[in-house]
Amino acid sequence: MTLLDFNRLVPAHIQAFEAYAPSRPDTELMRLYGVNHLHRLNNNENALGPPPEVFQIVEAFPPRAVPVYPNGDCFDLRRVLAEKFKKNPAQFLVGNGSCEVIASVIKAFCEEGDNIITADKTFAVYEWVAEFSGFEAKLVPLKEHTFDPDAMLSAMDGRTKILFVCNPNNPTGTYWDTPTMIDFLDRVDNRSLVVIDEAYCEYVEKENFPDGLALMERYPNLIVFRTFSKMYALASLRIGYLCGTSEVVDIVRRTHVVYSVNTMAQRSAAAALSNDGAFIKDTRKMVTEAKLLVCTMLDELGLTYLCNQGNYLMVHLPFSDTLMYRKLMTKGIMIRTMTGFRFPNWIRISLVQLPVMAEFCRAFKQIFQEE
């Protein structure tokens, strides 16, 4: 029998691509590190959990709905989104997390020889999806921890199809204000699509923060991503969406997998939007209090850190980020190491309730003073 020839069957760009390795389940990590609890400060989850309306959906979900396929294009949820944001339902496309809509946009507009442009230190999925799809990802260095509009524009060429701007940026928390965003869009001048990823926009209270959904009325090449995983705490249900002109969304929909968003996720997302004012206010309050506590400790220790927008902050360590991860894990605290994200010896910390943040501060300070 002929041997299976992977060199012939597997494209070169797939052979060169390194698969992402997710962390092990919490129960396995607790066993490995010998702890009886684990505070998850690694994935920017909203530790308050979803809005109360979501609990009602989850608790009342009928077993008889389990064997029935979900609505293929999230019809009801798109109507809820349209009503909330004063758009047409045809302007929304919902996916199995924002990662799926990233892939759908790239598949819809890129072909062999094309490229996308984004920052070198941002949400890595833009780069990953482009590269494992066989397209070039041009990575522009951050400038003062912020996306550099001039450098992104300079990197454009005749094969640039999409520019991805994470606003606010994960993991630095920096953002472009409204004048900067408008100037950038004017200078792109419809030559390429611009995607603004607003995964953390609900955490931003700055008056000069641009609303991508409003800007698209003026810029038909603009696509906005948002998610229910962060502020709305539906991470396990995997649901995100994009918004654009109906013409752009129609093109993206042609590459998008139908039935990828389950019924529980669709109903929970609609419920989360139904009465979110007090919930968002409470979450922002939790994050603000956590920032004050942690930043005060970091100042006392004389450490460099980035604390901007979003429910996370970054700290630069004088020793290995992996070492800090392992030591914190022995105390039941899980953070994100950032060397793999091109921030050597930095860690990212999700901001949650004060009792947990106080436990983190005690553990962090003890480990830091021992090193």
Descriptors:
single chain, 371 residues, alpha/beta, Aspartate Aminotransferase, domain 1, Aspartate Aminotransferase, domain 2, seven-stranded mixed β-sheet, 15 helices, 40% helix
Q: How can the largest sheet be summarized?
A: 7 strands, mixed
Structural class, judged by helices and strands?
alpha/beta
CATH homology superfamily of the largest domain: Type I PLP-dependent aspartate aminotransferase-like (Major domain)
Strand content: 5-15%
Could you explain the architecture of this structure?
- By secondary structure, the protein is of the alpha/beta class.
- The chain has 2 domains: 6-49 and 278-370, Aspartate Aminotransferase, domain 1; 52-274, 3-Layer(aba) Sandwich (Aspartate Aminotransferase, domain 2).
- It has 15 helices and 13 strands.
- Strands 2-8-7-6-5-3-4 form a 7-stranded mixed β-sheet, sandwiched between helices.
- Helix 4 (52-59) packs antiparallel against helix 12, helix 6 (98-109) packs across helix 7 and helix 13 runs parallel beside helix 15 (354-370).
- The protein is globular, with a radius of gyration of 21 Å.
- 39% of the residues are buried.
Summary, kept brief:
This protein has 371 residues and is of the alpha/beta class. It has helices at 6-9, 12-15, 26-33, 52-59, 75-85, 98-109, 125-132, 149-155, 178-188, 212-215, 246-253, 263-274, 277-301, 321-329, 354-370; strands at residues 39-40, 92-95, 115-119, 136-140, 160-166, 193-197, 222-227, 240-243, 305-306, 312-316, 333-334, 336-337, 346-350. The chain has 15 helices and 13 strands.
